Amino acid sequence: MATMPKGMEHVDRRELYTSLPARVFYLQQFLEFGADDVAALSEGQKYIKAIIPAIVNMVYKKLLRHDITARVFSTRDSRNEEDPDRWIGEEDAQIRHRKMFLRWYLTKLNSDPSKMEYWQYLDKVGLMHVGKGRKNPLHVDYIFLGACLGYIQDSMTEAILSHPRLDLTQKIAIVRAIGKVIWIQNDLMAKWHIEDGKEFADSDWNDELQAEAQQPEGYVNGKRVLGKVDEDDSSIDGTASSISSEKSTTSLGRTMEQVRLSNEQSKCPFSGMANGGHELNSQRAATWRPRRDDPMVPPSSPTGIPRLRVIDGKTVGKEKLGLSPFE
What we know:
Blueprint: H1 13-18, H2 20-31, H3 35-63, H4 67-70, H5 72-75, H6 93-109, H7 116-127, H8 142-161, H9 168-190, H10 203-213, E1 219-220, E2 223-224, H11 243-247, H12 256-264, H13 280-283, E3 309-311, E4 314-316
Antiparallel strand pairs: 1-2, 3-4
Helix pairs in contact: 3-6, 3-8, 3-9, 7-9, 8-9
């Protein structure tokens, strides 16, 4: 057997499938996720946090748009193609509750990745979607999880690249860091759906799996890592809900009416940005340019209209924008 060439590093295949730290370390090395990415995520936290509520609403509009994903909120299993007796709507208490957890998840995704607890939670997100070890199991096929992650990444990327107060260097750093984190999350979801490495599973591994899966949502190793008491209104819009939704409570014991009233009093961190509109053209990177052979040709409209923008101090969606919202 030949010796490894100089500079080549050994990776133990068993460890990739039996040790989460080893798997995460390998992925971080391969993607070159390091201190610069951690710093970029820290720098970008306040900007990403401001757009999370809008992204949450966009994601659930997507999930409720198609029957194959909408019925999961009733059946808890995307393999079940039987239509429910009643379709869940966006204003139902269950969806408002799920929006809260998605908001917490995206906030966690945008927190400090230098701690192993961070990656343990991302791994648990994958586990909780394969229907293992829970009294009320949930199974979501990987295609829907991957598509959802892709949509979230695209939305965050577009929002950051369009931000009028970030320079190009900052935008590149934040987008790259987010992309690496989301792709590691993608792997930690896919690992629970594929058969690779199953030969390394043993009884001890299965016992640990069952114990982890039975912990409440938002907990890792018996410790709460997701959400705070004062954050349970942040992912819910200010529109009035149905009577049934108003009477229901969140997992923290707050009524939907309390959540709605509290949310109405909150302010967007970008409040007042509209006053600096004259700076937008100088700070925004061009998304299209004239042809080389005719520099006088006026720019044509871009192929895609941005979904997220800060207009008059508020984050708004694609359906409310014109072709050139900043002009």
